[in-house]
């Protein structure tokens, strides 16, 4: 008896699709680096702006020359790209340290906030989206849709201020700013292997009080940032589930006496998952953009907070370094999402190959 050969989804076409998608990351990052570089130079050099009237013109000119800001912009750009290829992002003029150190020191805080906000988005968005689809056009659906519209339309900084007003002023049960209380900060920094993720470092101490304190500081920022993404998930899940619930195999399941809860969770959920996975990559970019406002609102000392500070200080190298890191993260996240979608649904890569 002849054995049938089952074609694996991980074929040459799949790897070719992955390679093409990965190669898109390089021009995407390069374009963003170029745009940010030239936009920052349009405002003039930061040394003259910061020190004008404070130092003699000759000394200012000497510092400008030493920093290389008096050279043609295209020469500065080529030199910057050369240094970038060697992993050198330059030095921060406002913080007096290499930009790579800024990324290491504050990057973990932003990633921690993004992870916590994603958890909030998933925990809130998925159940409410399912519930809205299950009770379509009934009062639970109406309430959930209104909730998602309010969350989506409310600016993240305003939502953060409202949360601080409610839970830190009127009902003072949560801290309004920072990542940890000053009393515990030294203990977190003295753990044997500090990661920069306060929650992980808090568990390393084994002190329940520190763990609770870190969690309390994280609740409001994670809610402010996570509810924005949760609103998108709710609307997307609801729409896709309603579409899936109207298919023939769902009607067949109903005719067999399958409960509505089982239909939603077992029969309709997986087919509706594909568009959700695709959109999640775009929401990562939106979440990182929202992190700038969220971190500033809650004084959460991460890359978003530092970006707002270095922009005020006209610190070109620091601005470029933080933006580059965010661009790389967003591009790689979208690449991973594209690969996951292609692995689950071969029609995606077949469509790309037919172009």
TrEMBL record:
> Which organism is the protein's source?
Enterococcus asini
Which cellular compartments is it found in?
Answer: Cell membrane
Every copy of the ABC transmembrane type-1 domain together lies at 107-341
Indicate whether Cell membrane appears among the record's keywords: yes
- Could you name the domain of life of the organism this protein comes from? Bacteria
Cleaved signal peptide residues: none
For this entry, the protein name equals: ABC transporter permease
Q: Which GO terms describe its biological process?
A: transmembrane transport
The family line of this record is: Belongs to the binding-protein-dependent transport system permease family.
Its main subcellular localisation, reduced to a broad class, is membrane
Swiss-Prot/TrEMBL keywords? Cell membrane, Membrane, Transmembrane, Transmembrane helix, Transport
Membrane topology, as annotated, equals: Multi-pass membrane protein
Q: Which GO CC annotations does the UniProt entry carry?
A: plasma membrane
TM helices/strands, residue ranges: 20-39, 106-128, 149-173, 218-237, 272-293, 322-344
């Amino acid at each position: 008896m002849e054995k049938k050969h089952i074609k694996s989804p991980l074929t040459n076409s799949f790897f070719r699709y992955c390679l093409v998608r990965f190669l898109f990351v390089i021009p995407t990052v390069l374009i963003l680096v170029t745009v940010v570089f030239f936009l920052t130079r349009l405002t003039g050099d930061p040394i003259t702006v910061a020190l004008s009237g404070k130092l003699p013109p000759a000394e200012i000119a000497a510092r400008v020359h030493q920093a290389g800001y008096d050279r043609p912009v295209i020469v500065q750009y080529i030199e910057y790209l050369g240094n970038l290829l060697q992993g050198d992002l330059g030095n921060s003029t406002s913080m007096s340290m290499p930009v790579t150190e800024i990324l290491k020191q504050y990057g973990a805080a932003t990633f921690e906030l993004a992870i916590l906000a994603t958890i909030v988005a998933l925990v809130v968005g998925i159940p409410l989206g399912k519930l809205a689809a299950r009770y379509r056009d009934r009062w639970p659906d109406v309430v959930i849709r209104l909730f998602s519209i309010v969350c989506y339309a409310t600016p993240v900084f305003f939502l953060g201020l409202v949360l601080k007003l409610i839970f830190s002023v009127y009902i003072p049960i949560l801290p309004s700013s920072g990542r940890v209380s000053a009393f515990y900060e030294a203990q977190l920094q003295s753990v044997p292997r500090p990661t920069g993720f306060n929650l992980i470092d808090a568990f390393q101490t084994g002190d329940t009080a520190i763990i609770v304190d870190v969690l309390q500081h994280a609740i409001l920022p994670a809610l402010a940032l996570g509810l924005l993404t949760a609103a998108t998930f709710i609307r997307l899940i609801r729409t896709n589930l309603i579409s899936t619930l109207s298919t023939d195999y769902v009607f067949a399941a109903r005719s067999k006496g399958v409960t509505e809860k089982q239909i939603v969770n077992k029969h309709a959920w997986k087919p509706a998952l594909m568009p959700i996975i695709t959109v999640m990559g775009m929401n990562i970019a939106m979440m990182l953009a929202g992190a700038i406002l969220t971190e500033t609102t809650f004084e959460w000392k991460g890359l978003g907070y530092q970006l707002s500070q270095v922009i005020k200080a006209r610190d070109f190298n620091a601005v470029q370094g933080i933006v580059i890191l965010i661009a790389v993260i967003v591009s790689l996240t979208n690449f991973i999402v594209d690969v996951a979608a292609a692995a689950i649904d071969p029609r995606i890569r077949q469509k790309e190959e037919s172009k």
